[in-house]
Specification:
By secondary structure, the chain is an alpha/beta fold. The protein is built from ten helices and eight strands. It has helices at 2-21, 48-52, 63-66, 71-80, 93-98, 105-116, 137-147, 165-174, 214-229, 246-259, and strands at 22-27, 58-61, 86-90, 122-128, 153-156, 177-182, 196-201, 234-239. Strands 1-2-3-4-5-6-7-8 form an eight-stranded parallel barrel, surrounded by four helices. Helix 7 (137-147) packs parallel to helix 8 (165-174) and helix 9 (214-229) packs across helix 10.
Length: 260
């Protein structure tokens, strides 16, 4: 009897650990063309996030890249996040694409204060650099230091000139996650620079309006598994191919692949 209890405990613990190895979601949830494909046609838009949360434990909030939101919005997002659901917040384009990480300490501080309102519902913060950003390690390091989010900051590079040993070393030093981005311009790299891995999928041959094939999803799964072997305790995988709910379809397929 004792052996059976121990065995059951081990099995349950193993299942829980395996479930948390990969966290899959999409880049945003508020898309009108998902109605009738993912969201029921008669479901009010205000209930979309709760419906989304029944299938996924995480979502990227891309809206924070384009707009500044009052505190009430962050507090509402926090309230809507049930159970283990959490958010990844994308850094404002004012910091990355307008100021280009220069003279923006004040803006970074303001952004971090807003993100902190999510408290335990904030998983990560995504810092996406513009594709034509000048290769400047000192500038990048100053910005990372200003965020002061060791273990929570993800850096996404939109140009392969950043895939250097020096950049990898900097991310490891600052405990920043490297974003392995799959897009028409970049391919997946299984770097692990912190305690977790991060994969962002924009569309293999076309930005956003692209549905990954089964074979391509197997490549994504292989990259995620390699990140685990490289030391990542968890791998976050976010689909940004939002057109026609391709992100939802691909995310569900990848969930099944990784369970196997």
């Amino acid at each position: 009897m004792v052996l059976m209890v121990i065995s059951s405990h081990v099995i349950i613990s193993y299942m829980r650990r395996k479930k948390s190895d990969y966290t899959i979601g999409t880049s945003g949830w508020n898309y009108k063309d998902w109605r009738g494909i993912f969201y029921p046609k008669d479901l009010p838009a205000k209930d979309w996030l709760s419906f989304y949360g029944k299938s996924f434990d995480i979502v990227e909030i891309n809206a924070t890249f384009y707009h500044l939101f009052p505190d009430e919005v962050f507090l509402r997002w926090k309230k809507l996040a049930k159970n283990n659901f959490s958010y990844i917040i994308k850094v404002s384009r004012y910091i990355t694409h307008i100021k280009r990480l220069l003279h923006c300490k004040r803006a970074i501080k303001k952004f971090c204060r807003s993100a902190a309102l999510l408290e335990n519902k904030l998983s990560l913060v995504l810092l996406q650099l513009p594709p034509n950003m000048v290769y400047d390690l000192k500038r990048l390091e100053k910005a990372i230091t200003a965020f002061n989010m060791r273990g929570k900051l993800v850096v996404e590079f939109r140009d392969e000139k950043w895939f250097t040993p020096e950049v990898k070393k900097l991310l490891i030093k600052k405990r920043c996650l490297f974003c392995a981005a799959d897009s028409p311009k970049t391919r997946l790299i299984s770097w692990v620079t912190a305690n977790a891995g991060y994969i962002r999928l924009h569309g293999r041959k076309k930005w956003f309006d692209y549905k990954y094939t089964h074979r391509e999803l197997k490549e994504v799964a292989k990259c995620a598994q390699q990140m685990r072997k490289n030391g990542a305790k968890k791998v976050y995988i976010l689909f940004n191919n939002d057109y026609y709910a391709y992100a939802i379809q691909n995310a569900r397929s990848l969930q099944s692949l990784l369970k196997k």
